[in-house]
Specification:
Distance between the termini: 84 Å
Oligomer: single chain
CATH class of the largest domain: Alpha Beta
CATH architecture of the largest domain: 3-Layer(aba) Sandwich
CATH topology of the largest domain: Rossmann fold
Shape: globular
Number of strands: 17
Number of helices: 34
Largest sheet: 7 strands, parallel
Structural class: alpha/beta
CATH superfamily of the largest domain: P-loop containing nucleotide triphosphate hydrolases
Helix content: 40-55%
Radius of gyration: 31 Å
Length: 724
């Protein structure tokens, strides 16, 4: 019993805690006894303590191998805070200067240092191996051990070299720690580190305080801003897959008055660590990051983790959502999901080695199954990590709180399988969907697939429905996608068995993940169009148009008025953020409008869903400045397009974006070469009288006398003159 009492005393002395959490005590006993130890403990379970405390107790220095510089710095600072001795913990990595390294080595050699954090890359350096052979090592701790496995969500090749280097330095017990590992990954880690004899300590992966939700990705930015504004002052992390999206979203949040900072591997180390510190010190509430962020960020009160893009694997998802609510308090995990994102990820896989593609495909499929499942999210996640969950309803995920409707889909599935065989397993999903719908496009006709039995058997359903059936069949393992052959669909053995002997197969309606056009109403808040206000604003627009002697649509188009009737803007700044308005128009025509809206809001005691007026970052078309400058210099439009690698059509689109957001362009010099004064006056008069500036209508009105290009250029001239 002596050591146990000692351990509690040591825990109190070094870390100020009275009790151990979960398996911590047993793990520490095992390390102190000099045994190999494998620790599987979810984020927030207190993994670090499992090697920090024994390192302080044992003779010698513990070598902690860790993949991230940010994590090392964080932990070394924490250790130094617990001890009077500066040199108690150090790290050795590429961020240190020569002088720093010399002083670290002195502390280690003098025996002051109990914990030395090393990056795997630094560990492989000859000079460091030589140095480590000179010191007494108490044990090696391999943190984030899942990096060893190709099946892990964060595979790093240098992690595979750890074992041979440990052999070179000198044998010592190993403790491997990870927060996420499926049984497959766990075996891979133990085998690679040559520690199949290790005692395994596995804590439950269930995080009862986390709420899981998957939302259709329809207008994620607006959703996110709304969520953050409704949770003022709380800390959160938003994960995106690309650096570009991280930058864009950070800028958007800041424009909307939300303190946010970015974090990704493309930033220099100083900027990254500054932003991380600002987040830890709560100078900013939100970090927008690629997955590079968060390993070892011990911020206990992250209240929400949002995935703007769905991660590539469920392990990654579990790891990242695990940053929420580490103090046991509220932790909301919301993921935006659209199958289009999955298709993008599949495209990235093409061209990688086959083995890597196979693994990637499998991991993605598991993620899709999770996103589209109607089962309890907790159950699905825990099952993935080889753990059961006894309750039917966890009461803390979207599927348990708002169950989806299911229906029998056996017949639909049979239609899909027959169609695949009819085209001899040589076509992709979209082609097969067109066959089922009976849509005879040119490709279908050229293959004579409009003569197949399957042609049109599913015409009573829509594209989204059949896409969903194909995905269910993929998830159910009845069909597979051959990435090497660009996504050709084939039947699996299970698919052939199903054809011979069909069984029940449940499909799910609801949560239409792919119909991005169908805006889902918000929970609460105003999302329906206010018809009364719409009528008032239309009258007012007519009055303003009369005053300026212009068609009403030049003042504001209908979609802009509709937007105003949803968001109720009451300042010019808010008005400028309404779709299709911009600062110029707001200043010119907006004053009366916002007075009317303000009075209407006050009279009807309307609660404005103000967080819904999402400010947009000005469209910083990279061509904008170039186009404006060159039009000012009267350069031929074809030459401007060629110089920027644009087609003429693309150039006109860019010019329309510039003019419609409130900037004038004078292209008379170009139009005068195309059309004489009379022709220009005729088109001008048309736009003056017409009810809309729709180009197709104009083209028909003139019976093809003018090309669409002529009309679009004249529309630009018209809006430049009257709209801005």
């Amino acid at each position: 019993m002596g050591t146990q009492i000692d351990l509690h005393v040591k825990l109190k002395t070094y870390f100020g805690f009275d009790h151990f959490k979960g398996n911590q005590e047993a793990i520490i006993q095992n390390v102190l006894a000099g045994n190999n130890t494998f620790v599987l403990m979810p984020t927030g379970g207190g993994k670090s303590l499992c090697y920090q405390l024994p390192a302080l107790i044992l003779d010698g220095t513990a070598i902690v191998i860790s993949p991230l510089i940010a994590l090392m710095k964080n932990q070394v600072d924490a250790m130094r805070a617990f001890s009077e001795m500066e040199g108690i913990a150090h790290f050795m990595n590429s961020s240190l200067s020569k002088t720093d390294i010399i002083s670290v080595k002195e502390d280690v050699l003098s025996g002051k240092t109990k914990l030395l954090y090393v990056a795997p890359e630094s560990l492989t350096k000859e000079s460091n191996v030589e140095f480590l052979r000179k010191i007494k090592i108490s044990f090696f701790a391999v943190d984030e051990a899942h990096c060893i496995s190709e099946w892990g969500h964060d595979f790093r090749t240098e992690y595979r070299k750890i074992r041979p280097i440990v052999e070179q330095i000198g044998k010592a017990p190993i403790i491997a720690l990870t927060a996420t590992a499926t049984p497959k990954v766990q075996h891979d880690i133990q085998k690679n580190l040559d520690m199949l004899d290790a005692r395994v300590f596995k804590s439950s992966f269930n995080r009862p305080n986390l709420y899981y939700e998957v939302r259709p990705k329809i207008d994620p930015t607006k959703d996110i801003i709304k969520y953050i504004k409704n949770n003022e002052g709380k800390s959160g992390i938003i994960y995106c897959l690309s650096r570009k999206k991280v930058e864009e979203l950070t800028e958007l949040l800041n424009v909307n008055g939300i303190k946010a900072a970015a974090y990704h591997a493309g930033m220099d180390a100083v900027a990254r660590s500054t932003n991380q510190d600002r987040f830890l010190m709560e100078e900013v509430n939100i970090i927008v990051a690629t997955i590079a962020f968060g390993m070892g960020i011990d911020k206990p009160d992250v209240r929400f983790v949002i995935h703007y893009d769905i991660p590539k694997s469920l392990e990654g998802y579990y790891q990242e959502t695990g940053r929420a609510g580490r103090d046991g308090g509220e932790g909301v995990c919301v993921t935006f999901y659209s199958y289009k994102d999955i298709q993008k990820l599949e495209k990235f896989m093409q061209g990688k080695p086959i083995a890597e593609q196979e693994i990637g495909k499998q991991l993605l499929l598991e993620t899709v199954s999770y996103a589209e499942s109607s089962l309890c999210r907790r159950k699905v996640l825990l099952h993935y990590f080889g753990e059961g969950y006894p309750d039917e309803n966890c009461g803390s995920c979207d599927n348990c709180l708002y169950p989806k409707k299911e229906f029998e889909g056996k017949e639909y599935l049979l239609d899909v399988l027959h169609a695949i065989l009819e085209v001899k397993e040589k076509f992709k999903v979209d082609h097969l969907v067109n066959i089922l719908l009976g849509e005879g496009d040119s490709t279908i006709k050229s293959y004579r697939h409009d003569e197949l039995e399957s042609f049109g058997v599913g015409s009573e359903k829509n594209v989204q429905f059949w896409n969903m059936v194909f995905r269910r069949a993929l998830i159910g393992g009845l069909i597979e996608k051959d990435i090497e052959q660009y996504g050709v669909i084939k039947l699996t053995r299970a698919g052939h068995d199903f054809l011979k002997k069909p069984t029940n197969f449940m499909l799910m309606e609801d949560h239409n993940f792919d119909e991005a056009e169908e805006k889902l109403p918000e929970k609460g808040g105003v999302s329906a169009l206010d018809g009364t206000l719409f009528a008032i604003l239309k009258d007012l627009r007519k009055k303003i148009a009369k005053k300026y002697n212009l068609p009403p649509y030049v003042i504001f188009q209908d979609p802009s008025l509709e937007d105003m009737c949803i968001h109720y803007p009451i300042t010019l700044e808010e008005l400028a953020n309404i779709q299709g308005v911009g600062t110029g128009k707001a200043q010119k025509y907006g004053k009366e409008l916002i007075e009317v809206i303000k009075k209407y809001v006050d009279d009807n005691e309307i609660e404005r869903a103000q967080d819904m007026v999402v400010k947009t970052v000005i469209n910083k078309s990279k061509f904008k400045v170039y186009i404006i400058q060159n039009i000012d210099r009267k350069i031929n439009l074809e030459d401007i397009a060629t110089a920027e690698g644009l087609t003429f059509e693309e150039l006109i689109k860019e010019m329309e974006a510039i003019v419609f957001s409130g900037t004038k362009l004078n292209i008379d010099y170009y139009i005068n070469q195309l059309l004489d004064e009379e022709q220009q006056a005729e088109i001008f008069d048309y736009f003056m009288e017409a009810n809309s500036d729709n180009i197709t209508e104009a083209y028909e009105e003139f019976g093809g006398e003018y090309t669409e290009e002529d009309l679009r250029l004249m529309r630009l001239k018209f809006h430049s003159k009257h709209g801005n």
